[in-house]
Structure formats: C-alpha cells, structure tokens
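ligand=6-O-phosphono-beta-D-fructofuranose
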Amino acid sequence: MLCKVCGSNWSRIDIIIKEKAIFVYTLSKVLEMAKSMRTQRIGILTAGGDCPGINAAIRGVGKTAIVKYGMKIVGISDGFTGMINKEYKELSEHDLSGILTLGGTILGTSREKPFKTTGKKNEIKKPVLIREHYEQLGLDCLVCIGGNGTLKTAHLLSQEGLNIVGIPKTIDNDVWGTDITFGFDSAVNIAAEAIDRLHSTANSHKRIMVIELMGHNAGWIALYSGIAAGGDVILIPEIPYDEKKITAYLLQRMEENKPYSIVVVAEGIKNPDKERSVAQYLSRKITELTGLETRETVLGYIQRGGTPSPMDRVLATRYGAAAVDMIASREFGNMVALRDDKIVSVPLAEVAGKLKLVEQDNALVVQARNMGTCFGN
Ligand code: F6P
C-alpha cells in the first residue's frame, strides 16, 4: 500500500501500528490538557523547628494560588506527620487573613522524618502512606516549607515521583543554595536586642557576660548579632576556639581600662562539658583562668518565637508567591531561593544534604577582626 504523505510502500500492519501510536499520543495530550484545565490542588506543610515568617509564607502561597491562579489550597497538619496520618484542612482566603504578623505556624509542625527506618520487620512504610494520601487528596503539588531536614525529605519525595516545591525557612540561615532564609532576620533582631541589654548591666558590675545563641551547627546568628550589638568575643562553630586566646584577650581589655566584655557564642561551638550548656562551661572556665566575675545567658527559644520582622515578612511573602509561580510553570523538584536579591529556583537535588556555613574568610569576620573583635583563635 502506498503512503499518501511520502509515497513509500507500507504494509497494513505498519499502518495499524502508526495509527495506534497517533491515538495513544493524542489521548495522552488530551488527558494532560484536561488535567491542566481542572482546578489545581496545592498541598502545603511546614516542618522542622518553627521560625518567625512561616505564616507570612503560607499566606504568600495561599493568596497567590487562590487569587492569581484560582487554585485550591490544602493545609497539611504538623509537617510530614499530617501526610502520614492524612490530617489536613482546606484553606480558604479567609483562613489566610490576619496571619501575616503571627509567629509560629498555623499548620503546626513536627520533626517527623518519614524516610528514617527503624529496621523492624513489619515497619509501616511512611513514604508509601504519603504517596497514597497525596493521591487521595488529589494534590497536584506539595509545597514543603522547612530547613535542611525538611528539604532533604522534600527531595526524596520528589524522587518518588511526587510534585514538590521547597521553600527555605530557618532562623539558622544554613540552607545551601540561598543567600538567606526567612526567620534569620527576626532572630538576629531578638539576639542583638538581648546583647544590647547585657552591655549596661555588664558595665555596672564590671563583669564578663557570656551569651549563647542558637544556630545549630552554623554561626550566622552569633556572627550577625555579635557584630550588630558590639560583641567583644564572637565564637562560632566554623572557627575552632582556644580558651587561652580568649582569656588573654579579656585580661588585655581589663588592662586597657575596658571594665566589662561581652562574649557571644553560638550553641554549636565545641563543648567539652556534656552536662552543661557551652555558655555555662565557658563562663566557669573564664573565671577559673582569669579570676574575672562572669555570668551567662542562654537565650534559647525566645529567638524563634513571636512576630516576624518586616524584612522576614517581605522575604516570606516573596518566597510564597514565587513558589506558586513555579507550580504554575510546572517547575517541580525545586526550591525557591534568593541570590543577589533576585528570586531563583534551585534543584532540591543540589540543596539536599548540604549546609551553608560561615567561611573562615567571610567578609564580616575579616572586618570584625580588623576592628579588634576576637574570634577565639
Ligand atoms: O533549627 C532551628 C533551631 O532552633 C536550632 O537553632 C536549634 O539547634 C534547634 O532548632 C532546636 O531544635 P528543637 O526545637 O527540636 O529543640
């Protein structure tokens, strides 16, 4: 039989195969179109340690999805726990009003790691449950707002075939691939205010004040708030400290008629004392080695609670809106990020398992050193 298009000689079987292929292709395109035309359902969860700005991000995602794209939003409760137990709530625009300035997360959070296995024989396969519930909820995408642990899980789910978009959040600012995470600015403001307040009481009593700040294994909060509030010594995990260098520096300040000193330490620095906080350890050590009167403060969860700073509200809103634009253009398996003040999308595969730490030659470290700040080395 002669082909009408190219004139070549085709057998009947060739023609049947070709027609079938065309039919299957057309059907898949029609199904794809139908899927993209029906209302998209976006799941959203918040996981890991909370931080100021999460609700602003939820609002950014939700309002953009509803107003700009006419999508539907499904809020998943308590991080990945909600996906495992199928606990969720449909979110209307009304639910997203009045949350911009609220601390915490209206969805709740948890540190659930669904890919972590116990090795037990009849262990429930949590990723399987997540996939089942993703399908039962009719989700077209799951937005995962979180720090390093969450983004790693998000990447693994994306490898399992789920449509995932990540949004980086943490006070620690240690997510690889983005210049900044929301939560960090608020935490630095709180920490800097706390250090400011230590100055006057330290001066009255002529004491050494050690203040311990959060940040997990990264020193970003200690570095920024230490510089912002005039810390004399700043200790971060990325720069190993020598106790003798610190004490020599503090004694030198006394000799120079500087009656008090502020020592800002990140929680992740080396702590040889497993029983006490590193602030307590250093405070005792300084007194022991110098005879100077020392007190310690562990600022703790104050840094994570309360209303987000305006900068964090703006950043979280930008991330939320950009995440929905990514969903609309079907850029799944990526995380929104900020680089040179521009929103970009970074593959979760590049982010997962990495940390953004302070480099030893970080410009702020160098500047502070040049102004006499001691980094303990
Ligand atoms: O990641 C944020 C953070 O606050 C860290 O700075 C801190 O080490 C950790 O979380 C505390 O975790 P949790 O809330 O589980 O005590």
